[in-house]
């Protein structure tokens, strides 16, 4: 099998992560800090160590890190904890349904940040929109999960702060591989099983500026049990219930590995190679940023074929795994006019992909001519 769906989840994981999964199932399958016995304390110490490793990726502190089960849960907690019905919120046209559906469910007023067809921010229209709407928050991806486009988040957030927006960066596709300038960012969301190469079940956010959030998830924390209110101390105020210590341990070990590697460079080389090969195939339409290289994610279509049909052929005839369709991004269809192909064919790389695998993909596509 050739796996090119790493924007959904990286696969395979590093051997250290699989070893951590097995080890944690035996040694860390207990409730952290919920008892005075050694295992409970050991697991609590491991979780705090993992918080510290996550926080160092953004030059922050461990008390800023809140663990959740997924980036979707993190975004739900943030949006429900911050936004109420009727609030004005700005998002990009590249946002995932983890953001869009949650805002829609609250009946927030969703405003789309203006970008042109070359994926460049229309700064004049953006500034006008800020003045008119006076939004409570801006929520944008660091890297688009469809196009690999790195949004100009520094510019967007810097301009937004002039009207006191709360700035949330969805770094599900990037934390651990790409540097993030935290100036003007209030909250960063991460997904353990994507660019951080951990197993499913661990994600979260860093509340960098201590934004006040309504507690959405309440329950036991193992402390102050007679108090009916959630504890005020961060991050435990937002971590009711049992932490997934097994998944967290895989994140702990994954960070040890990825911080020693230049995964970004490898993905850049693969991306350049794929784009050069795709451009040689008649009928390929690439969806690329005008002035930058996609960040390990490339979307394209092939002639008038339905994207899902190409994906099925690649899977059934060549055992090549790509992602096809709309990728849970509702506003991108109209932005890129994808109705004819019903979405895009998406190739997304990890540390484990090779140039030889790309050659096999290109040969398969040429075989469909």
Mean model confidence by pLDDT: 94
**Widest beta sheet: strand line-up:** 2-8-7-6-5-3-4
How do the helices and strands follow one another from N- to C-terminus?
EHHEHEHEHEHEEEHHEEHEEHEH
Structural class: alpha/beta
What is the strand and helix layout of this fold?
Elements lengths: L1 E2 L11 H13 L10 H19 L8 E4 L2 H12 L5 E4 L5 H10 L2 E4 L10 H11 L3 E5 L11 H8 L5 E5 L16 E5 L11 E5 L37 H14 L4 H16 L5 E4 L9 E6 L4 H12 L1 E2 L1 E3 L6 H5 L7 E5 L6 H12 L3
Parallel strand pairs: 1-11, 3-4, 3-5, 5-6, 6-7
Antiparallel strand pairs: 2-8, 7-8, 9-10, 10-13, 12-13
Helix pairs in contact: 1-7, 2-7, 3-4, 8-11
Provide a brief overview of the structure:
The chain has 369 residues and is of the alpha/beta class. It contains eleven helices and 13 strands.
Brief descriptors of the model:
36% helix, four-stranded antiparallel sheet, seven-stranded mixed sheet, 15% strand, Aspartate Aminotransferase, domain 1, alpha/beta, 2 domains, 369 residues, Aspartate Aminotransferase, domain 2
């Amino acid at each position: 099998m050739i796996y090119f769906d790493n924007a959904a989840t990286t696969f395979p994981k590093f051997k250290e992560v699989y070893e951590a999964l097995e080890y944690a199932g035996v040694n860390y399958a207990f409730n952290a800090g919920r008892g005075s016995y050694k295992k409970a304390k050991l697991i609590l110490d491991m979780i705090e160590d993992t918080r510290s490793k996550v926080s160092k990726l953004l030059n922050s502190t461990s008390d800023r890190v809140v663990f959740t089960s997924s980036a979707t849960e993190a975004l739900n907690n943030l949006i429900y904890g911050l936004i109420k019905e009727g609030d004005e919120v700005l998002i990009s046209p590249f946002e995932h349904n983890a953001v869009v559906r949650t805002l829609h469910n609250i009946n927030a007023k969703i405003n789309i940040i203006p970008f042109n067809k070359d994926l460049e921010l229309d700064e004049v229209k953006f500034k006008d929109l800020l003045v008119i709407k006076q939004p409570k928050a801006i929520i944008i991806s660091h890297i688009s999960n469809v196009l690999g486009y790195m949004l100009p988040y520094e510019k967007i957030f810097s301009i937004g702060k002039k009207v006191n927006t709360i700035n949330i960066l969805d770094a599900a596709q990037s934390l651990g591989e790409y540097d993030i300038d935290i100036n003007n960012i209030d909250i960063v969301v991460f997904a353990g099983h994507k660019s951080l190469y951990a197993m499913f079940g661990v994600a979260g956010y860093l509340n960098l500026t201590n934004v006040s959030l309504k507690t959405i998830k309440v329950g036991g924390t193992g402390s102050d049990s007679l108090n009916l209110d959630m504890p005020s101390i961060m991050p435990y105020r937002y971590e009711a219930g049992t932490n997934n210590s097994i998944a967290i341990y895989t994140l702990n070990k994954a960070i040890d590995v990825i911080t020693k590697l230049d995964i970004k460079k490898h993905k850049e080389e693969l991306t350049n190679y794929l784009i050069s090969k795709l451009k040689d195939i008649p009928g390929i339409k690439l969806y690329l940023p005008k002035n930058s290289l996609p960040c390990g994610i490339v979307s394209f279509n092939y002639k008038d074929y339905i994207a899902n049909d190409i994906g099925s052929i690649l899977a059934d005839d060549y055992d090549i795994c790509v992602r096809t369709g709309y990728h849970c991004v509702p506003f991108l269809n109209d932005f890129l006019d994808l109705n004819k192909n019903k979405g895009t064919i998406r190739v997304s790389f990890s540390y484990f992909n090779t140039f030889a695998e790309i050659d096999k993909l290109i040969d398969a596509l040429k075989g469909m001519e």
